Amino acid sequence: MLKDGTTKVNTSKSKIKVVDFVEGQLDPGTFEVPAGFTKVDRIDWNQPQEERSAWSTGWEQFVLTVKDLFN
């Protein structure tokens, strides 16, 4: 919940570019649970966050758009 009492649902998108693909054995350590890992029942994706200005949000979207043009 934001300071003004309203709520905001956060959404995101991601893009992955595969740059190397190798066939072979995987390191078993890749699948070990890291030290200090804590299991949680549920992740609250809508946790209160600091309000961001429209300029800040707009700039972030602009940067992501430009990066998409060159990737």
Characterise the protein shown here.
- The protein has 71 residues and is mainly alpha-helical.
- The chain has one helix and no strands.
- The chain has one helix at 54-70.
- The mean pLDDT is 83.
Average pLDDT figure: 83
Low-confidence stretches: none
Could you give the distance between the termini?
35 Å
Compute the gyration radius: what is it? Answer: 19 Å
What best-fitting shape do the alpha-carbon axes yield? Answer: flat
Q: Give the SSE order as H and E letters.
A: H
Helix content: 10-25%
Q: How many H/I helices?
A: 1
Please give the largest β-sheet.
none
DSSP E strands, number: 0
Strand content is under 5%
Class based on secondary structure composition and strand pairing: mainly alpha
List its traits.
71 residues; mainly alpha; 24% helix; flat
Write the layout of secondary structure elements.
Layout: H1 54-70
Overview in brief:
The protein has 71 residues and is an all-alpha fold. The protein is 24% helix and 0% strand.
